[in-house]
Each structure stands twice: as C-alpha cells, then as structure tokens.
Amino acid sequence: MKQYELIAPCHFGMESVLKNEIYDLGYEITEVSDGRVTFLGDMEAIVYANIHLRTAERILLKAGSFHAETFEELFQGTKAIAWEEFLPADAKFWVTKAASVKSRLFSPSDIQSIMKKAMVERMRTAYHTDRFPEDGASYPVRVFLHKDEVTAAIDTTGESLHKRGYRKYKVKAPLAENLAAGLISLTPWKPGRTLVDPFCGSGTFLIEAAMISANIAPGLDRHFTAETWTNLIPASAWKEVRQEAREQIIQDPECDLQGFDIDREAIAAARENARLAGVDHLIHFQVRGVSELSHPKKYGFIITNPPYGERLMGPGEAGQAGDPEMAAAAAAELSAVYATLGERFRALDSWSLYVISAYPHTERDLKLKAAKNRKIYNGMMKTYFYQFPGPKPGRS
Question: What's the CA gap between 119 and 140, in Å, rounded?
Fold first, then answer.
C-alpha cells in the first residue's frame, strides 16, 4: 500500500515518549522535532495511530511542503499540491489553523485565505468544475511555516486526542490526559506496581494508569474526522481495528492504584470519570489530605500534580494584583503543602516520587534534590517534572 508522511504533534518534552509509542506500533520514524514526530504509514496507519497513541495530540496527513517567502509563492506552492488525491469533489475543506515561526509570512488570516483560494483553483482544474457544494465529508487543513518552509497537512483526528471521552466531570486546572499518560511513561512505574496520587483532582493520572494496566486503547470509544473519509479509508478498517483493540483488553489486571484529595467534589468527579472510562473497579479513591499519606507496601510510586499558585489561584488570590498579606498567606500555604508532601514521602519505605509543577520552590520545600527535572509545557505554562527515584525492588 502507498506510504504517506503522518505528523503527530505532542506536548513539548514528550517527543521521546511518542516516538517509542509509534515504534511499538511498527511504523518508521522519519523526523523528530520540537513538539512533533513524523512517521511513515499507509491509510490504515491513520486508524491505528488515532485509536492507540496515548501521548499524541492529533494525527495529520501530510499533503505537501514547499518554500514560500511571498504570498504569491504561497499561492503557487499550495496550488501545486495534488489535493484531488485526498479530497473528493464534494469535500468540505478549509485551513483551520496556520502557525508561523521565523518566517516572512506570519499573518494567520492571510495565510488561511490565500491557501483556501489556491486549493479551490487546484480542485477546479482537477474536477473540471467551477462549483464546489462542500456538503460532503470535512477535510480540515493545518499549515505550519518554519523558516519559510511550508508544511500543509490534513487533520485526521478532529477534537484533540487528549479527549478520550471519559472526563465529563472536571475540577479546576485539570491535567490533559495525553500529558498524564506521557508523564507516567517517563517513570519506571509498570502495571501491577503501587501508584498513589495524593492530589488526584479529577483522577487523570490514575485513570490513565488503569487504562495502561488494562491495555485499553485511549481512542477506542471516540469519533475521528477521518472516519468519514470513505474515499481514502473504508469504514471496515475502523471497525476491524476497534474490534482488535477490544480483544486485547486485559479484563482483570493486577492493580494497586489509589487517589486522594481533600476536595470531596474532586473525588466524586474522579470516581465518575473512572466509571466512564470503565476502570472504576481498578482504582480506590478517598477523601484524604496529603498529611494522611501512608502506605504499608514498599517500592511504590507517587506521581502527582500538586497545586502551584497560578494553576489554582487567580491573580487576586495569588496576590499579583491584590493584597500583599493575602499573597504572603497563599505563599505560606503553598510552601506548607510541599513540605508536608516531602515529609510524608520520606516516611514511606523505598518509594519513588514524581512531581509536575511550576512552583519555583518545589525542591526547597520538599527538602529533596531531584535526580532529574525535565522541562514540560502544560499548555502554555512552563512546568518541570521533578524525578526522585527510589531503589529498585530487591536492592538495598
């Protein structure tokens, strides 16, 4: 079958994890860049990637690339792409997003408008018609300009892949599902080992860990834009890959997954989200503060996303534009939270701790020195993933 270049964007800092996922699916990587992994695959690869990849944000089908420093070059380069290979005559097509970095062309609206006109011109010639009803399947196009190199790709996914479909109930400042899965993959935790999140919020870390334990494909129960592309991918392909994924689910995996939060509403949301994900029987949620964190087993893991100022407090609450006394009180409270987490962690026997936070005094207040910290962008916020690995089982 014909091979295409497929582009999988991801959170900055998650490229290595996503690369390994794509390798595990059996596809060849052609390029790894900041926030993006490109690989080769046929049309069936679009189905497998959308349903199985845990850390990607979406899957893009590359239509073409070219150099453009002027709008005329942008028009001609876009027109030269064989859009008719992908788009049927009744396709609904538009440039849904344009991003430009270090390029002479930088106006997203102008880039979108010119590329749409060029696509229409190409389609007009290819299909020998001046009328395009655009009442068929949707083919949204995304374009990236980097140092005047233009890459045009069709979005096969639709809503971002982090939207698994289970998180109907949210709490303030939730962690994206695909980022949570990626952070888990950056640790030595494996299914069957103890995992505790003492700031579990809506339960994302634990639900993702449970889905990994049960081998539940993250995109199994959601819809994708490319499912309507019957000119490229038969409906049977989606059905077959989903059926195969369902047969690979481990019905009763060994699990020790526990989530605590001081907020009753958060725990209620986490339980309902876990039920919607089909993993509620694998996770124990409880209303409990971090000061009560304890566990009798050895060699467990804490993977958590504790509060860090701006993530949970507005500008007035944090004091940036408010009362200095309120700011000082908030800072003291935050410091105490990290100090308590560090104290309770040190009381555990041979455990490992992994913390994602933008709080600048994380190590100071935990009273721990990270073996490694990794810069991760949580949306537009720069955070660090602090890693405090404990001893391996069987070693002193």
Answer: 12
Distance CA 363, CA 342 (A): 9
Is the distance from CB of 115 to CB of 155 less than 8 angstroms?
no
Please choose, from the candidates 144, 151, 153, the residue with its C-alpha nearest in 3D space to the C-alpha of residue 102: 144
Concatenated DSSP letters for 68-97?
-SSHHHHHHHHHHS-GGGT--TT-EEEEEE
Sequence-distant (6+) residues with CB within 8 A of 262 are 287, 288, 289, 290
Q: What is the pLDDT of residue 395?
A: 57
Handedness of CA 130, 133, 137, 143 (dihedral sign): positive
Residue (of 84, 146, 152, 149) closest to 114 by Cα position: 152
Domains of the chain (ranges plus CATH)?
4-155 (3.30.2130.30), 177-216+227-388 (3.40.50.150)
Mean pLDDT confidence for 212-226: 97
Q: Cα-Cα-Cα-Cα dihedral of 240, 244, 245, 246, to 10°?
A: 100
Separation CA 105–CA 112 (nearest Å): 11
Buried b (16+ CB within 10 A) or exposed e, 144-174: bbeebebbbbbbbbbeebbbbebbebebebb
The residue written with tokens 């064989």 in the block is 82
Q: What is the pLDDT of residues 109-167, one digit of tens each?
A: 999 999 999 999 999 999 999 999 999 999 999 999 999 999 999 999 999 999 999 99
Q: Which residues pair with 285 in a beta bridge?
A: 259
- Report the DSSP beta bridge partners of residue 145: 100, 150
C-alpha to C-alpha distance for 277 and 210, rounded to whole angstroms: 9
DSSP H or E segment with residue 109: helix 108-127
- What is the bridge-based pairing of β-strands 283-287 and 149-155? unpaired
User: Residue 313: what pLDDT?
Assistant: 46
- Give pLDDT, residue 316: 40
Contact 6, 154 (CB under 8 A): no
Give CA separation, 192 vs 255, 271, 298, in Å. Answer: 5, 20, 13
φ, ψ for residue 392, nearest 5 deg: -75, 150
Distance CA 321, CA 319 (A): 5
